[in-house]
Amino acid sequence: MSQARSNGTNDGGVGGHRLATAFDVVSKLPALAEAQRRVIGLCDRQASSPGDITDAIESDAALVIAVMKAANNGNGPSGRAGGVREAIEELSPDGVRSLASGLDTYDFLTRPGLVSERFERFRRHAVSVRIASERIGEVARLPQRDELAVAALLHDVGRLVVAELYGDEHLATRPGESPEEGVRRERRELGIDHALVGAVLTRRWGLKAVVATAVERHHAADAAGLAAAIRLGDLIVHHASGDTVTTAAMREAAAALEIADSTLSSLLFEFPAVGEKRRRSSEPCPLSMREIDALRGLSEGKVYKQIAHELSLSVSTVRTHLHNVYRKIGAVDRAQAVLIASDRGWL
């Protein structure tokens, strides 16, 4: 990826040709060889579920880029996939296999060196932020979880473009520098920042506006929704890695998601073990927020009276909410309702 680089200096602006070349180079990001092997193996296996294939693809940003680009640029019947699972449905496992097989790969184990280390460092951070952001999305009850996963995996893709233009020193924040300070330095020294560049690139790939906006806004002080979840996820990952992170920034991102300090403390304590069991479904949740609240109370072993008291509702209203839950998801009793909702990632 070095052919488009400008020796790490700022020449007073990025020419259109150089930027387009950098975009093209990053658009052909190599995948981790092991991730490619697993995706191909799952696509070849008839018994593999879309969820299994999704998990394998979401272990590598390059695979996500390839699949999302193809599904959103005319290779799929509808041409508008928000997340990886939808993209698989658009392309079919055979189509995904063909895309994965055509990617260049790196292997830091059998082909060690600066190039492999560079790509692997990017991949690890992307996956870590995806895991943290997904957990935050669950806690904050955010919609569009599949889009959140894609945006989290691609949140720093603009760093690769900036590195192509100005040098590898822009691939990460500097020692002692918080993520916010790093973005301000980029704007000051380069006239651009990696979040904005990443958003331009994701739009160029045809990804949904919600994904591009989350990438663009993930360092903004007033980030909301998916962008705030990625901002907080990124800060939690940096914190876990021993990087400089301010408590003010974490609290600001958490507040935008109505996450209290006590919950934020739990998130910091949980990471990275939170990623051990993923529960997310691309199927839209048919339940209202109140219905989810009532069902969550049941999952915690509470009786109707306790749930009603905590939600400031009447017992009859709680009973109505839960009957609606059973009807909407096809459950015959509370145990089955909790099981279905938990399995689909709605609780």
What do these coordinates show?
By secondary structure, the protein is mainly α. The chain has 3 domains: 31-103, no CATH class; 114-276, Hypothetical protein af1432 (Orthogonal Bundle), CATH 1.10.3210.10; 289-343, Arc Repressor Mutant, subunit A, CATH 1.10.10.10. Helices cover 63% and strands 1% of the residues. The chain contains 18 helices and 2 strands. The protein has helices spanning 16-27, 33-44, 50-57, 61-71, 84-101, 114-140, 145-153, 157-166, 179-190, 194-204, 209-217, 225-240, 247-256, 261-270, 289-299, 304-311, 315-329, 334-343; strands at residues 31-32, 105-106. Helix 11 (209-217) packs across helix 12, helix 15 packs across helix 16 (304-311) and helix 16 (304-311) packs across helix 17 (315-329).
List keywords for this structure.
347 residues; Arc Repressor Mutant, subunit A
Strand order of the largest sheet: 1-2
CATH architecture heading of the largest domain: Orthogonal Bundle
Number of strands: 2
Secondary-structure element order, N to C: HEHHHHEHHHHHHHHHHHHH
Percent of residues in helices comes to: 55-70%
Gross morphology:
globular
- Give the N-to-C terminal Cα separation: 43 Å
Quote the beta fraction.
under 5%
Oligomer: single chain
How would a crystallographer describe the biggest sheet?
A: 2 strands, parallel
CATH class of the largest domain: Mainly Alpha
Which stretches of 5+ consecutive residues score pLDDT under 50?
Answer: 1-13
- Backbone CA Rg: 21 Å
Task: Assign the CATH superfamily of the largest domain.
Answer: Hypothetical protein af1432
